[in-house]
């Protein structure tokens, strides 16, 4: 599918933060810069499974290590306002570095 530019847009999530590097590496193999869709496979922010500062930072670091941070799809809306506030602080702090 990747050879004929027929790979659908896909967002992958993982349930275990220890797989961040594996998922990011897999996604990095499908970052087409050709006439097809750019970055058809993306790493979703499954932070509802990793609702800790370390879990969020590890996922962002895995994306950055694979050069995928510029294709990051962002965060989902979260109804838990206290956790969302923490997520926003970490997210903004990560990009301020």
UniProtKB/TrEMBL annotation:
InterPro entries hit by this protein: Metal_Hydrolase, Uronate_isomerase
Catalytic reaction annotation: D-glucuronate = D-fructuronate
Biological process annotations from GO: D-galacturonate catabolic process; D-glucuronate catabolic process
SUPFAM superfamilies, sorted: Metallo-dependent hydrolases
Pathway(s) the chain acts in: Carbohydrate metabolism; pentose and glucuronate interconversion
EC number: 5.3.1.12
This protein's UniProt keywords: Isomerase, Membrane, Transmembrane, Transmembrane helix
Cross-referenced Pfam families: UxaC
Transmembrane spans: 79-96
UniProt entry tagged with the keyword Cell inner membrane: no
Entry's Gene Ontology molecular function annotations: glucuronate isomerase activity
Family: Belongs to the metallo-dependent hydrolases superfamily. Uronate isomerase family.
Protein name: Uronate isomerase
Organism name: Kluyvera cryocrescens
